[in-house]
Amino acid sequence: MEAFTTHTGRAVPLRRSNADTDQIIPAHWLKKVTRNGFEDGLFEAWRKDPSFVLNQPERKGATVLVAGPDFGTGSSREHAVWALQNYGFKAVISSRFADIFRGNSLKNGLLTVILPQETVEQLWKLTEADPTAEITVDLESREVRAAGITAPFELDDNARWRLLNGLDDISLTLGNEADISAYEAKRPSFKPRTLHV
Amino acid sequence: MGRTLAEKVWDDHVVRHADGEPDLLYIDLHLIHEVTSPQAFDGLRMNGRPVRRLDLTIATEDHNTPTLDIDKPIADPVSRTQLETLRKNCAEFGVRLHPLGDVEQGVVHVVGPQLGLTQPGMTVVCGDSHTSTHGAFGALAFGIGTSQVEHVLATQTLPLAPFKTMAITVDGELPAGVTAKDLILTIITKIGTGGGQGYVIEYRGSAIEKLSMEARMTICNMSIEAGARAGMIAPDQTTFDYLEGRDHAPKGEDWDAAVAYWKTLKTDEDAVFDTEVVIDAAALSPFVTWGTNPGQGAPLSAIVPDPASFADPSDRMAAEKALEYMALSAGTPLREVKVDTVFLGSCTNGRIEDLRAAAAVVEGRQVADGVRMLVVPGSVRVALQAVEEGLDKVFKAAGAEWRHAGCSMCLGMNPDQLAPGERSASTSNRNFEGRQGKGGRTHLVSPQVAAATAVLGHLASPADLTAESGLEA
Ligand code: SF4
User: Do A23 and B413 touch (CB under 8 A)?
Assistant: First the structure.
């Protein structure tokens, strides 16, 4: 996973709640068997509308998505995170994320930042008025900064440490092999097995 | 202090606990399908890692599989590649797979329980959000992303952040014609699509205890639509009766030991939930969605709401956008909404009981002119059982299409899709924009409402049928 320390970039204000995973990346894109090449599928249906915010020339190259509440509801598809990253987003800000989406994002180094809805509104106003306005998402100091706005955010120490160092969960877990084996040794015999032995 | 059911199952699976770190939890069952696994197997290959517990892993094909001509090569090359990739991966790593054409093939969440692999007190995961279905057995079951699929394949564990607990107590008697689907749709509209966020929900109360396993699965299935991590129902005699004798259910002494353990899996009297919601079953009625998220629903007898009636500005904006997409105007009675397609199936309502309920409604009647009704059993086993009971004949005689098992129009990754602007009544779980096909409009309904809607051509319940056919006679 790519490490995340701090990032500064222009923003896309997405004034929609419940941007579900079927909007972020529609199902027909899920047939791909790779982790890349999803950028054209990002918000595919909404992008058909020329007035959609992502289509505006001044939003080209923006890297911070500022979205309405309940971002990423719906399916467990990690493709939603890959699509955002493939497109170039480094961070998503919202007042509420769906659990699985948030878990997936942090495992891939896409920082999902929870801020109060008032702050999201301020960021919307700021970047709508001035598309060149930059937002800094600083994971070291757990702070979002933009012109006239300084907003602290929460992220637990462990998730932050893994992101800052770009650590791979599987290697960390395999370091606990002794614990896993010990647990396996005492699992009851009535637990089902998929293979008949 | 006492513990809740969810806390007990969690505690029994902690492999490693360290302060300030997520608990490492052991996973008892890992279900795999073709969509969310290819990148995970790639990851294993790249790092030279094997699957740690092949005997706790099982795969099936469901999302891409066609429901017609299943003996011919799959027409869409991209779908075909994805299925072939799963077959190759399962063969290479040694994972048990039930491919298209196999008698145990079907929607992953229908297959696990019917094989008896889903049991009380287990941890069950799958790269699919509707893994919450398995919570109906008193298992802690949740959907995971592809990185986590790889993690479970490699380690049979997952580091997991703690959850909060919510009790949804449903007391009383569901009125005749009101189903588990109506109940869960009502709950989602009440608490909202984010209402369960961070929670494991336990459904309890006398109305829940009276439900069959199929109905309990329908409820737990849609916990994710309320934003919850998982949904659970404490195991009881209904659960044990469902499991006894199934292929992978414990046998002999193991059965007795298992049941003794399962009986301990209930929330203690003095346990405290973080949140409690109480619902009066008797007050419920058939419930349908009018919008583009599962929390935008109303009783069938209601009208399409006016966006201005929503106090919260983001709800109001969402309702405006939803009505525009759904081509509905505020004030229209929901019963007057005409549909083109009816879809009966999915991991929410594609089990035998659902097919029986819908067949009872269409029996001796005809699907309305200009309406197509697709019946897609949740699994091959469900289809075989339905054929044995003659349900396929009932559906065909009514003019419905009897199809092969799979996810089908629930998400339209196969050719079963809505055309732009088409409207469906669907027993599935998501009414997102474009979910059933680009530009398609979805109303979520129960199997009974789906069947009555197919006959009348507009959203309706079986009660309307007798009323309207009385007029026709
Ligand atoms: S039936 Fe629908 S919800 Fe269930 S697993 Fe298939 S696509 Fe997902």
Answer: no
Count of A-B CB contacts under 8 Å? 201
Interval between CA B218 and ligand 1 midpoint (Å):
12
ipTM of the complex, rounded to two decimals: 0.93
- Distance from A141 to chain B by nearest Cα, in Å? 19
Instruction: Determine the atom of ligand 1 nearest the C-alpha atom of B378.
Output: 1
Q: What value, to the nearest 5°, has the Cα angle with vertex B332 and ends B328 and B334?
A: 90
In our burial notation (b when 16+ CB lie closer than 10 A, e otherwise), range B313-330 reads: ebbebbbebbbebbebee
Record the pTM: 0.94
Which residues are bridge partners to A14 per DSSP? A67
What is the residue-level pLDDT of chain B in tens, covering all 473 positions?
A: 899 999 999 999 999 999 989 999 999 999 999 999 999 999 999 999 999 999 999 999 999 999 998 888 888 888 999 999 999 999 999 999 999 999 999 999 999 999 999 999 999 999 999 999 999 999 999 999 999 999 999 999 999 999 999 999 999 999 999 999 999 999 999 999 999 999 999 999 999 999 999 999 999 999 999 999 999 999 999 999 999 999 999 999 999 999 999 999 999 999 999 999 999 999 999 999 999 999 999 999 999 999 999 999 889 999 999 999 999 999 999 999 999 999 999 999 999 999 999 999 999 999 999 999 999 999 999 999 999 999 999 999 999 999 999 999 999 888 999 999 999 999 999 999 999 999 999 999 999 999 999 999 999 999 999 876 554 43
- Tell me if A100 and B255 make a contact (CB, 8 A cut-off): no
Site to probe by mutation for ligand 1, drawn from B131, B351, B411 as the one with most ligand atoms within 8 Å of Cβ, is B411
